[in-house]
Design a protein that fits this description.
Blueprint (H helix, E strand, L loop, with lengths): L2 H12 L5 E5 L5 H9 L4 E6 L13 E4 L17 E5 L7 H14 L3 E7 L6 H15 L15 H11 L3 E6 L5 E6 L1
Parallel strand pairs: 1-2, 1-4, 2-3, 4-5
Antiparallel strand pairs: 5-7, 6-7
Helix pairs in contact: 1-2, 3-5
Bound molecules: S-adenosylmethionine.
């Protein structure tokens, strides 16, 4: 089973009768399609700032192009959703924009949020030494670190930023594939 399917199955276990679902940063909508396939009574709204290609989402999912919360403006309020999640989007934010994003959830009235597919930095000694050497060599222009692809944070760093944004209660676990999830509540 792929990580995305593991995440979709996890969401299904959390959706105790909840039908109105908001996904933030849905990408091509693979997870959302799996949710809909599981229960076609689910009403799924997905926000995606990138090119909105409905390849996976089809016409059963309301895919909105834009950012949270502006993409919902005039269309939906917090009361329209029972369950809100974001999968694999934390890496796009630096700390400041991450806090802004998390705070905007609370301002919108979302007090229960699942942040999933979180990858954490490896603490294996070989990986750390390799990373240190690459950074040192890149400083003296002997090695090209390549393109910066995003931010990795430890779970403690996520919790710290979630707390600054205003979340107070947390449940954390890890998928078999190694990624983590955090359910943050107020
Ligand atoms: C790794 S993909 C994850 C897609 C999907 N959620 C999944 O799990 O398959 C990250 C997604 O975050 C989206 N993204 C980028 N900036 C964002 C932002 N500020 N708010 C929400 N989503 C964002 C990207 O366009 C991209 O589709």
């Amino acid at each position: 089973m792929s990580l995305k399917d593991e995440i979709a199955n996890h969401l299904i276990t959390l959706l105790n009768g909840d039908k109105h679902i908001l996904s933030i940063g849905s990408g091509i909508g693979y997870i959302e399609k799996q949710l809909y396939n599981h229960n076609n009574n689910f009403k799924i709204v997905a926000i995606e700032p990138g090119d909105c290609n409905n390849k996976w989402a089809g016409d059963k999912i309301n895919l909105l192009n834009g950012f949270f919360p502006s993409a919902l403006s005039g269309l939906y309020s917090n009361k329209d959703f029972d369950f809100v999640y974001a999968s694999g989007i934390d890496y796009v934010f630096d700390d400041e924009s991450y806090i802004t994003f998390l705070s905007s959830l609370i301002e919108f009235g979302i007090n229960d949020f699942l942040l999933t597919e979180i990858f954490v930095p490896s603490n294996r000694i070989k990986v750390l030494i390799k990373d240190y050497l690459k950074r040192t060599l890149s400083l003296i222009h002997v090695y090209n670190m390549g393109q910066f692809w995003g931010y990795l944070r430890t779970i403690d760093e996520h919790l710290q930023l979630l707390k600054i944004a205003g979340f107070t209660h947390f449940k954390i676990d890890r998928y078999k594939h190694g990624a983590y999830w955090i359910r943050a509540r107020i």
